[in-house]
Amino acid sequence: MSLTIDKAKNVAKVLTESLPYIQKFTGKTIVVKYGGNAMVDEDLKQSFARDIVLMKLVGINPIVVHGGGPQIGSLLEKLNIESSFVDGMRVTDDQTMDVVEMVLGGLVNKEIVTLLNKNQGKAVGVSGKDGNLIRAKKLRIKKKGDHVGDAGLDIGQVGEVASINTEILDLMINSDFIPVIAPIGTDKNGASYNINADSVAGEVASVLGAEKLILLTNIAGVQDQQGKILTGLSTKQVDTLIADKVIHGGMLPKVECALNAVKAGVQSATIVDGRVEHAVLLEIFTDEGVGTLITQNGLDKG
Hints:
Elements: H1 2-25, E1 29-34, H2 42-57, E2 61-66, H3 69-78, E3 85-86, E4 89-90, H4 94-118, E5 123-127, E6 134-141, E7 153-164, H5 167-173, E8 178-182, E9 184-186, E10 192-195, H6 197-208, E11 212-217, E12 232-234, H7 235-243, H8 251-263, E13 268-273, H9 279-285, E14 291-295
Parallel strand pairs: 1-2, 1-11, 2-8, 5-8, 7-10, 11-13, 12-14
Antiparallel strand pairs: 3-4, 6-7, 9-10, 13-14
């Protein structure tokens, strides 16, 4: 009996702790970039879906932006289409772009929608092409030593966000529906582009004036030179860590995405350890969170 009472007390404590955060975020928009382990591990997939559905249930407006690199690579391999990368970005010709659209706009997007709906959510999948949601432009890679004005390396139909048309998102935010966005955009001529999902999430959060941006990743957070997790950083501290090359490699684009969102007016951005069950809820509804929180002033959560 005592074990049952202790468990009940623990549940009550968790609910009590979450109350001020529910009050803080009710009516606010939170953009979540979904990827990494949280997207392939079955238990993590279920916990993610429940987190998002619960957020909507308590009056928060979640928007999910997803990646799908491993799934794209897997299908390309099955189709005997060779993949090549430049600075971590997939060179995307017409044939590869067809596969990207099938995987991101079809397979992966609908799997996430189904997952949320099975957990009693009302999810709607959209590509950046729907309603001209994401206007894209070709991304050219600048290499070290390039002169100012150099066009940069063309790696095919890889794009960056030129603009976001929020009309379709506004409709869903003001309803019971949860938008699930595939990061594909089109240019003014209708050509399709594969866009980095972190970048899309950051841009969506910025133009909507979101309360929070959450980037799920496969590491515990941003680390200092001694390997210690930095739980709370200001934009100025992040700039310094980048300049000193403490933040580098694969973490750099993700951190820059979070940094730019906060500088654009998003109240906070968090790089969250998506390998932890219910990572999204832990970040939003508890004092500790699980990852690195970036705000203008750098204060830890609390």
